[in-house]
Amino acid sequence: MEESLAAGHEGLMAKALDSPYRPGSRGNMWFKVKPAETLDLAIVAADWGYGRRTGWLSDYYLAALDESSGEFSLVGKTFKGLTDEEFEWITRRLQELKVSEDEHTVYVRPSIVVEVAFGEVQKSPRYKSGLALRFARITRIRDEKTPEEVDTIGKVRELYERQFRSKGRLG
């Protein structure tokens, strides 16, 4: 793995020895193994869930601190990583932090900090920060951290540039 990453690759492929190669498709017998980065981010809004998550706020808007403005700036959304008990708790807590809402989304004071694992950072025209996390998932709630202690947009940019330099070494 270390050699693969040092060479600028994303990671490794693990597969069943007897699985056939099919161009453009890994199927369920191939698995990509790559390291995940983490950031501590603030939840600044959440969408109401549907299906099994009806009644819960379950799609979270994640923000880093913009060190130049002091504002929280969106870098992604996720609905992955929490247990049912955590969904219930976070729904109650976000309702207490609500500053406004529309038909689908509750906007909140940044107060809940979560550790978020992700696959990579990409450029995004959707977010004012210009960056978005791919494959984001919450790995834990950071009760011991305040919103002022979340990671910065500068750090997100640094991660983006580092991965870009690494990928640039290929070919």
Provide a descriptive summary of the structure in words:
- The model has no long low-confidence stretch (mean pLDDT 89).
- A hairpin with a 3-residue loop joins strand 6 (98-101) and strand 7 (105-108).
- The protein has helices spanning 2-6, 84-96, 153-168, and strands at 12-15, 30-33, 37-48, 57-65, 72-78, 98-101, 105-108, 113-118, 120-123, 131-134, 137-141.
- The longest helix has 16 residues, at 153-168.
- The strands form three sheets. Strands 3, 4, 5, 6, 7, 8 and 11 form a seven-stranded antiparallel beta sheet that branches.
- The chain is built from three helices and eleven strands.
- It has 171 residues and is of the alpha+beta class.
- The relative contact order is 0.20.
Q: In percent, how helical is the residue content?
A: 10-25%
Major sheet summary line: 7 strands, antiparallel
Q: How many H/I helical runs?
A: 3
CATH fold descriptor of the largest domain:
OB fold (Dihydrolipoamide Acetyltransferase, E2P)
Order of helices and strands: HEEEEEHEEEEEEH
Radius of gyration: 18 Å
Mean pLDDT: 89
Number of domains: 2
Cα-to-Cα separation, first versus last residue: 19 Å
Percent range for β-strand residues: 35-45%
Q: Choose one word for the global shape.
A: globular
Strand pairing plus helix content: what structural class?
alpha+beta
Number of strands: 11
CATH architecture of the largest domain: Beta Barrel
User: Which runs of at least 5 residues are low in confidence (pLDDT < 50)?
Assistant: none
Query: What's the CATH class label of the largest domain?
Result: Mainly Beta
Within CATH, the superfamily of the largest domain carries the name Nucleic acid-binding proteins
